[in-house]
Amino acid sequence: MTESTMTDHTHRFDAMSPGRKAAYILACFVLGDLLILGLHLVLGGHDTFGAIFDLDKEGNLPTWFSSCKFSVAALAAALCFLGERRAGLGLRFRAAWLAISLLMLFMSADETAQFHEHAIEWIMNSPLGGLLRRAFMTDVTADALLWGLLASPLLMALAVYTLSFYWTRLRSRPLLMAGGGLAIALLAGALTLETEEAALLSGHGAFSLEVWNHYRVLTGLEELMEQLAASLLATIHFAYAFALEEQPSKSNADADQKQLPEVG
Question: Within 13 Å, how many C-alpha atoms sit on residue 239's CB side?
């Protein structure tokens, strides 16, 4: 592709409306999600290359793709912060975008570093682990289930905070607000499936082919839901940032205003 062709495509993208730009980005992300799913279905069981494409494995192509999307969502949230600054919104009213950006960065890092799995492993290997297993009447194979239960209050609080914040910014844009709600619902559904997977494995001493196939279906759905959630989060952040770009810049004298600038 020549430099002039690339410049032409860039100008075409810049000329699009914010909604069309967002739709274009979402389509690219979803195509990537479907490609990852297709590779998982076709090559996930391969003896040599299966681990690279298996949605149930860590440190592979699906993990990298999901991590990249959460990083992009963090970048887009930072652009929203800068866009609101340009639009004249005071720091204390736009600082939440930085919190959202940091949350997305943590989720990106967790996809690759698996902080939550290391944390629950440390807890379950401590004296507290035995108490928790007895309290919930589980064994070591269900530690992931306990992770979901132990973290659920914090995750619910984060979900409520994020949705509440999105409402303050996106309530005048129903599609974006719906996208934010759907993304949170997909992440909640993925966590629910993860606990079901742990319960399924802990309930069987020897795994039959039927149980294993059921487990594989659940893990595939769980990872696909996470992938789609990351795609939606990145898209709605970009859509809001694009809309802010079209707003006229306000003077620094208006920086402390309490009204959110109209977007759309």
Answer: 26
Q: How far is residue 192's CA from residue 196's CA, in Å, rounded to a whole number?
A: 6
Q: Is 154 helix (H, G, I), strand (E, B) or coil?
A: helix
Distance CA(153)–CA(46), nearest Å, equals: 39
- The pair phi, psi for residue 17, each rounded to 5°, is -70, 160
pLDDT band at 264 (very low <50, low <70, confident <90, very high): very low
**What band does 258 get if pLDDT is binned at 50, 70 and 90?**
very low
Task: Give the 3-state secondary structure of residue 56.
Answer: coil
- Decide: 165 and 100 in contact? Cβ < 8 Å: yes
Cβ atoms within 10 Å, residue 186: 21
pTM of the model: 0.83
pLDDT digits (tens, 9 = 90+) for 139-189: 676 676 677 777 888 889 999 999 999 999 999 889 999 999 999 999 999
Residue 85 is inside which H or E element, if any? helix 61-87
Among 21, 89, 65, 202, smallest CA distance to 10 is for 21
Which residue shows structure tokens 């996930």?
44
Among residues 8, 11, 19, 17, the alpha carbon closest in space to that of 236 is found at 19
If you search the block for the tokens 């914010």, which residue do you land on? 18
Distance CA 135, CA 137 (A): 6
Measured in residues, the chain has a length of 264
Backbone angles phi, psi at 74, to 5 degrees: -65, -45
The two structure tokens encoding residue 249:
């810049």
pLDDT for 206 beyond 70: no
